[in-house]
Amino acid sequence: MSGHSKWSTIKRKKGANDAQRAKIFTKIAREIIVAVKAGGPDPENNSSLKDAIAKGRAANMPNDNITRTIKKASGSTEGDNYENITYEGYGPNGVAVIVETLTDNRNRTAADVRHYFDKFGGNMGQTGCVSFMFDRKGVILIENSSSVDEDELTMDCLEAGADDCVLDGDCFEILTSVEDFHTVRDTLEQKYELSSAEISMIPQTMVTLEDEKQILMMGKLLENLEDNDDVQNVYHNWDAPEEDEED
């Protein structure tokens, strides 16, 4: 997705109703639990946990929830059997879709993901069938406000090791390599309020849908995938109409 559409998604999540917020918080809590199990409860020594905490704060997850989840993970067996599994496939008219999951039942999750692809005009493919169309990048978003000077931010980003900094709609989008992501994020957050900071899959080219039925089906596919408890992230190369992103 473009920076603008990504920012629109974040704004929508911040303004989500209680049920949507609860689902988002549950998914982030699962990421935190798995990160703690793998690398310990100190985010300064556990980059995966630091990433999960940053995602939680971007979604307005209360600090008490984050702290409680970390403590819970430190003293329980929950999360020991979660697996990271990525599925790839095509939506209507060949839109590329990548689905990252965190699951304790791979058979259930695979069946659910396949069902959504089949039901909404797509098909699930083999590993690697669409991932070559994306670049794995660090993506940091900073809201465009009067307190942020574009030239100064651009210089700070480049000095920190970022690949690019562009103003796109409501936000500045900073791109980094995966290797430099944590350094750039840690440097920028000392001076700026970050709206989001995460490793993402950036499509190399975008696909536009003209047929109204295909647009509807693609929207339903993404909605159902994102609503699934086991699905953590969904990436695609659909150049969705702006009104669809904002709704």
Question: SSE order in H/E notation?
Answer: HHHHEEHEEHEEHEHEH
Give the class from helix and strand content and strand pairing.
Answer: alpha+beta
Mean of all residue-level pLDDT scores:
88
- What multimeric state do the chains show? single chain
Rounded radius of gyration (Å): 18 Å
Helix content: 40-55%
Question: What gross morphology would you assign?
Answer: globular
CA(first)-CA(last) distance: 16 Å
Strand order of the largest sheet: 3-1-2-8
Keywords for this structure?
single chain, 247 residues, alpha+beta, four-stranded antiparallel sheet, 9 helices, 45% helix
Describe this structure in words.
- The protein has 247 residues and is an alpha+beta fold.
- The radius of gyration is 18 Å and the shape is globular.
- The protein has 9 helices and 8 strands.
- The strands form 2 sheets. The protein has a 4-stranded antiparallel beta sheet. A 4-stranded antiparallel beta sheet has the order 5-6-4-7.
Task: Offer a concise description of the structure.
With 247 residues, the chain is an alpha+beta fold. It is built from nine helices and eight strands.
Would you spell out the secondary-structure blueprint of this structure?
Layout (H helix, E strand, L loop, with lengths): L2 H12 L3 H22 L7 H12 L4 H12 L8 E8 L5 E8 L2 H14 L3 E2 L9 E10 L6 H11 L3 E5 L2 E6 L4 H8 L7 E8 L8 H16 L3 E6 L5 H5 L1
